[in-house]
Automatic annotation (TrEMBL):
<dbReference type="GO" id="GO:0017111">
    <property type="term" value="F:ribonucleoside triphosphate phosphatase activity"/>
</dbReference>
<keyword id="KW-0808">Transferase</keyword>
<dbReference type="InterPro" id="IPR027417">
    <property type="entry name" value="P-loop_NTPase"/>
</dbReference>
<keyword id="KW-0418">Kinase</keyword>
<protein>
    <submittedName>
        <fullName>Nucleotide kinase</fullName>
    </submittedName>
</protein>
<dbReference type="Pfam" id="PF03266">
    <property type="entry name" value="NTPase_1"/>
</dbReference>
<dbReference type="InterPro" id="IPR004948">
    <property type="entry name" value="Nuc-triphosphatase_THEP1"/>
</dbReference>
<dbReference type="GO" id="GO:0016301">
    <property type="term" value="F:kinase activity"/>
</dbReference>
């Protein structure tokens, strides 16, 4: 490809529902048979306080606990959270560089200070951004946005602020990028000359598409989560 596919960055402050927004966008795209890989990490509360995160592999719908505030000598400590080795291995496998012939969209929820310090998903992000990649969606806290863009040299970020953005419009923009990616893969694999009017139109998002995904989507995409930060 002559240029890299875009990286959509869903951003906002702590507690502004970045993961919830991402969840809805993914539900719409999966409803259009987009092949999604990566992870989403809904948080959970205990006594009204964020106490941990669950990790979901978007390609399979499988779950693994990623971290909690409960001390554990087996775990990597980052801030006040203890990251389970099983959760880290699970996530690193899910974030391995995808086969471009089998992946339309890569998701990383979320990229933050731990990655900027070289931990958690930092190595996977280095590998994902080192070569041409499918369109990606990352979630990033607003105060870290510019640092993350500079750290991974994201040349064409599409910033989506949850405070003002529309889920539907974001999903449409993602689908446009996915369709361009699919076309690029098709024409690079089959070098045939194009004729006027040959461009395949991307399917329009249907107004009645379920925000949680189609019946054939992984079960996790049909669940509802509370706000996250």
């Amino acid at each position: 490809m002559s240029r890299r596919a875009p990286v959509f960055i869903i951003t906002g402050g702590q507690g502004q529902c970045k993961t919830t927004f991402l969840h809805l966008v993914i539900g719409l795209t999966v409803g259009l048979n987009v092949r999604v890989r990566g992870v989403i990490s809904p948080g959970y509360l205990r006594d009204g306080r964020r106490s941990g995160f669950t990790l979901v592999d978007l390609a399979t719908g499988e779950h693994e606990e990623l971290s909690s505030i409960d001390p554990d000598p087996r775990c990597e400590a980052h801030g006040r959270f203890y990251f389970r080795p099983e959760g880290l291995l699970f996530g690193r496998r899910a974030l391995a560089p995808p086969d471009p012939r089998e992946t339309d969209l890569m998701v990383v929820d979320e990229v933050g200070r731990f990655e900027l310090q070289g931990g958690v998903w930092a190595e996977q992000l280095d590998r994902l951004t080192a070569h041409p990649h499918p369109p990606m969606i990352w979630t990033v806290r607003r105060r870290l946005l510019h640092t993350v863009v500079e750290r991974w040299n994201i040349q064409n970020p599409v910033v989506v602020d949850v405070g003002t953005a529309s889920v539907m419009e974001t999903a449409e923009a993602v689908m446009d990028a996915v369709w361009e990616w699919r076309e690029a893969q098709t024409f690079s694999a089959v070098p045939t000359p194009s004729l006027p009017g040959d461009r395949i139109a991307a399917p329009a998002l249907c107004a009645d598409a379920a925000a949680g995904g189609s019946p054939g989507a992984p079960a996790i995409l049909r669940r509802r989560y509370g706000p996250e930060g």
